[in-house]
Amino acid sequence: MPELPEVEVIRRGLEQTAIGRRIARVEVADDRVVSGPPEVLKSRLVGQSVQALSRRGKVLIIELEQDCLLVHLGMTGQLTFWDRKREDDAGFVRHPSTGLQRARQHAIDKHTHLWIRFEDGNGLHYRDIRKFGRIRLVSREERMCSPMLQSLGLEPFTEGYRLEPFERLLAGRKRSIKALLLDQHLVAGLGNIYSDEALFVAGIDPRRVASSLTRPERLRLFEAIPAVLARGIDLGGTSLRDFVNARGEAGGNQEELFVYGRTGQPCRRCQASIERIVLAQRSTHYCPVCQKAGIDGL
DNA sequence: AGTAATCCCTGGCAGC
DNA sequence: TGCTGCCAGGGATTAC
Description:
Elements: H1 4-17, E1 23-28, H2 38-45, E2 50-56, E3 59-64, E4 67-72, E5 77-82, E6 112-118, E7 123-128, E8 134-139, H3 163-170, H4 177-182, H5 192-202, H6 215-234, E9 275-279, E10 282-286
Antiparallel strand pairs: 1-6, 2-3, 3-4, 4-8, 5-7, 6-7, 9-10
This protein binds a DNA duplex through residues 1, 58, 72-76, 99, 111, 128-134, 172-175, 179, 182, 184, 191-192, 240-241, 280-283.
C-alpha cells in the first residue's frame, strides 16, 4: 500500500534515471488503468521528454514538456525503471521467508498494464496486481485542477503544513481520529500504516473522536505525522508485500514499525501486547497502554 | 454537509 | 492435493 513515503522513494529513484529521456512508444494492456481513450494518451505522450518528477500526497507527477502524467498506485501499484543494460537480470523472485521481492528488474508480465519505451531503449513499467491504481494525463496548466489533486489536504514537509489549519480541520468533527487521518482532505499522503504509526507516536487512542483531542494532543499528532513519514522515507519505504522502489528493490521500514501489523507482539516502548481492532472498515493497530483511551473512548 | 457503507480486484493462506 | 472462502484496503460512489 504505497503511502507518501513509498511514493517519495519512487519519485527520488525516477529522478535519478528518467529525467531527460524522450518517449518513443506507449503500450496500454488494460484500459481500466487510464482515464479516457488509450489512443489519445499514446499519441499525446509520444515525442515528449521527461522534465521533472514531483509529488502531491500519494500522487506521483511525471512532468513532460506539454503534459503531466498523474500516477496513483492504489494498493499494489509499482512503477519501475526498465534499464536495458540490466536485461539479463529480468524477472523477479520472492524471498523464501519474507516473501519480499528481491532487487530484480520487472519484466513485462500479466500484471503490467502500461509501459513506456524511451528512444534510448530504456523505459517505465507500470504494474498493479489489484488494479486499484489509476493513471491520468493532464496538461501542465490544468494539472492542479485535476480531480486527482484538487481536493487534497495539507501537504507534509511544505510551508502549508501548519498547526492552525490542521486544528481547524479537526474542529467539530465527530469521526474517529483514525478515520479522519485516512481522509485525504485533512492531510494528504497518510494511509493505514502511517496513520497507525503517527497515532502511536502521539500517544492517542485511534478510537478518539477527532474533536475531543486536547490542544497538547493535537500538537503531538501534528508533529508525529511528518516524523513517521520522514522515518519511512529514510528507511526506503515500507514493504509488507508489494512495494518496491524504482529499481525493483524492497524497503526497510517494515522492520521498524511500532504497531502496524504487530498484533499480539510486545510494544517497543512498554512491552504491552499490541491490539488490533477494525475502525472505518480498516484494521487498526495500537498499544492499549501507550495510547490510553480518553473519556469518550469506547 | 458530514458520515457511513459498498464495491472494485487478485494473490495468499487457513481449513477441510 | 485441490477446493472454498475469507482477508488485505484507497478511493469513487451511493445512501442516509
